[in-house]
Fold this sequence. Notes:
By secondary structure, this protein is α+β, with helices and mostly antiparallel strands. It is 20% helix and 34% strand. The chain contains 8 helices and 19 strands. The strands form 4 sheets. Strands 10-11-12-9-3-13 form a 6-stranded mixed beta sheet, sandwiched between helices. Helix 2 (32-41) packs across helix 7 (224-234).
Amino acid sequence: MKNTALTDLHTSLGAKMVPFAGFNMPVQYSGINDEHETVRTGVGVFDVSHMGEFILKGEKALDLIQKVSSNDASKLYDGKVQYGYLPNEEGGIVDDFLTYKIDDHTYLLVVNASNIEKDWNWISKYNTYGVDMKNISDKTSLFAIQGPKATEALQSLTDIELASMEYYTFAKGQFAGVDNVLVSATGYTGAGGFEVYVANEDAKKVWDAIFAAGAPYGIKPIGLGARDTLRLEMGFCLYGNDIDDTTSPLAAGLGWVTKFTKDFVNSENLKAEKEKGVSQKLVGFEMIDRGIPRHDYEIVDAEGNKIGRVTSGTQSPTLKRSIGLGYVDTAFAKEGTEIYISIRNQAVKAVVKKPPFVK
């Protein structure tokens, strides 16, 4: 089990620690509902230092990214972030990830913690371009400061003009007295905010400064439990639950980051699949009757025939009712369609609803 730079701090704060993606991670502090509400209405901080970071450098860095990424990274400008995925050769997804363009020859890729080694090996396999690759995951800490009060809480710490940063852009500057910190207007909550990348040796200093500056705004540490309920309310995919090596990116609704204007891994097969049409689609749903949908529960029709499966589900702290994501046969994917979740051998009624569940 790996630790992040601040594992001991989280333990001292009373966090409940759990194994996650090979790391010892805080799942909650004050409680998931309280932490969820803090992020939706105020500001909270996630330590997500388990995430992976790769630096790709060289004249052909863009060529390598274009080969392995579904999205078109040629559209990036310095300071812009892009979401995409790494297609595998069998029609599934190696991982979903972010690409940061630092300059014409330098890119930062941010990948999921559970896939660091897999992604590194996958990208390396296609690096016939002589691109210099560095895995800086073990040296890098990442804090996600999320919520509507994030800008006010953080501005005193940095010379970067936070309020004017557009969504999915980033800047480097001084932050909490540390030089060359990367701050991005990204996140996984739908509540707005920033993600801050720092070297491990500066992690404690930066964390303490964030909490000192955020104290007047009621800032709190937030665990992975609330991270999951927050992302589900927005309908954001979680790798390993909603997408994986076997799921079609087109069925998962990732056509918007699948750009057939270039050649990339498995692009011909994916193009053929798009033309043919997918047999299932990932949909959001809200429970009408009582019951909490869980990963891998069967989804059935009114006659009890299996039409799909749940990939993620929870009780929404904001809506006070259960929501979920799941794959269903395309005939049942239209918004407003009634479906049933098989919970302990009972068919519990739900309705297909397009995310985000919370506007």
